[in-house]
Amino acid sequence: MPMARLEVENLQKRFGEVVAVDGVSFAVEAGEILVLLGPSGCGKTTVLRCIAGLERPDRGEIRLDGRSLLGLAPEKRGVGLVFQNYALFPHLTVAGNIAYGLRHGRYRLSRQTRKKKVAELLDLVGLSGYEQRKPHELSEGQKQRVALARALAVEPKVLLLDEPLSALDAALRVELRRELRRILKERGTTSVYVTHDQEEALVLGDRVGVMREGKLEQVDRPQELYERPRTLFVAQFLGRANLWPAQVLRKEADKALVAVFGAQLEVEPLGPLSSSEVLLFFRPEWVELGEGPFLAEIEEADYLGDHWELRGKVHDFPVLLRTTGKPSQFVRFRIQRFLILPNASFLNHS
Q: What is the C-alpha separation between 286 and 307, in angstroms, rounded?
C-alpha cells in the first residue's frame, strides 16, 4: 500500500462573495488520519473537494509527496474518495463494485488477480461471502463497507472521506467508526476525514483540525485539543465547557494568579495575556464535589445513565457540572483542573 505525505498551503476558495476557505494550511504525514471537524458551512468539505480536484482553489498549493496536484485531473491525483451516499453501482454485485476501478482505471488487472484482490478487501472490511450480492440486498453499514473497499482497491496515495457515517443510525456509527480506524491503520492509508461529529473526530483522528468560517482554528492530537483548546471557539465546540470571567492578579512566565468570584487560583495561561480580563475554562468533569470555594444553585438535573448532568448558577453565572451521585439543590465544589483563555471580549461569541 503506497504511503504519501499531503501538504495544503494557504488554501483559499471563494464562491461569489462567500469566502468558503480562507488561508488554510496543514500537512498529513504518511499513514496518518487527519480529521477536519466543524459545523456546517465552515469550509471543511470544500477543502476536501479542492484536494480531490473537484473544486479549483483561487489561491494556495496542494502537494502530494512534494508534487503539486494543481492542474491535474481528479483521476490522475492518486486520491480515493468515500462519500456519504456510498455511490455504489446498483446493477453490479459487491465484487463488481469493488473491482470496478481495477477493470477501468490505470490498473487493468487480470481477472484472477482482481478476484484475489477483491477477496482480500472483503476480508478486510468483514464482508467475506457477500461477493454476489447487489447493493439493494445490503444494510446501510454493509454498503458503506463496500464503498470503502472500492476506494481502497486502487491503492490511493491519499483517501478522502466526506462524512461517510452521517447517514447511519447512532449505534451503527459507533461500531463502524472503530472498524474504519482499524482498517485505515492496518492499510497504512494517509487519510483526510471530514465530519461535524465531535466523538467521531476524537475516536478516528490521529490529529484533529477544528474549522470555523473558512479558517483552521487549531490542529492537534485529540487529547491535546480537548484538554488544551487555544481559542474560545474550540473550547466551546469540542465537548462541554464552562467559561467564567476572571481577573489576572499576577502573571509570570509560566503561571498566573487569577481571581474568580472571590477565590484565587493559580493557573497556566495558554497564550500571552494582553489584558487582565480573561476567561477561566474548565470541563464539567474537572471538578470535585462536596467542598470548595464555589457554591452552585442547581436549576436542572438530567439523568444520563452513568452520571447526572447539572445546570445551575454560581454568582448568577451559568455552570455545568457532572456527578455520579444524586444531586441536591445546592452543590459546593472545587475546580481541580482549569485553564485561562485571553480576550474576555470573545465571551459574547457563543
A: 14
Are 228 and 244 part of one and the same domain? no
Strands (E), the chain: 6-15, 18-28, 33-37, 59-64, 67-68, 79-82, 158-162, 190-195, 207-212, 215-220, 242-251, 256-260, 263-267, 277-282, 287-303, 308-314, 317-323, 330-335, 339-341
Q: Which amino acid is at 288?
A: E
**pLDDT mean across residues, the chain:** 90
Let me know whether 74 and 127 are in one domain: yes
Cell of 294: 464555589
In a domain, 1, yes or no: no
Rounded-to-integer distance, Cα 214 and Cα 224, Å: 22
Query: What's the structural domain count of the chain?
Result: 2
Gap between the Cα atoms of 65 and 5, Å rounded:
5
In percent, how much of the chain has pLDDT > 90?
68
Phi, psi torsion values for 327, nearest 5 degrees? -75, 155
Same domain, 224 and 187: yes
Out of 176, 208, 232, a domain closes at: 232
Q: In CATH, what number is assigned to the domain containing residue 272?
A: 2.40.50.140
Query: Alpha-carbon distance 232 to 38, whole Å?
Result: 14
Please indicate, yes or no, if residue 18 is contained in any of the structural domains: yes
For residue 1, pLDDT over 80 is answered with no
- CATH classification of the domain holding 106: 3.40.50.300
CA 159/CA 51 separation, integer angstroms? 10
3-state class (DSSP) for residue 271: coil
- Of 245, 205, 246, nearest to 226 by C-alpha is 205
Q: What's the mean pLDDT in 242-267?
A: 88
Phi, psi of 271 (to 5 degrees): -170, 180
Q: Give the mean pLDDT of 84-89.
A: 85
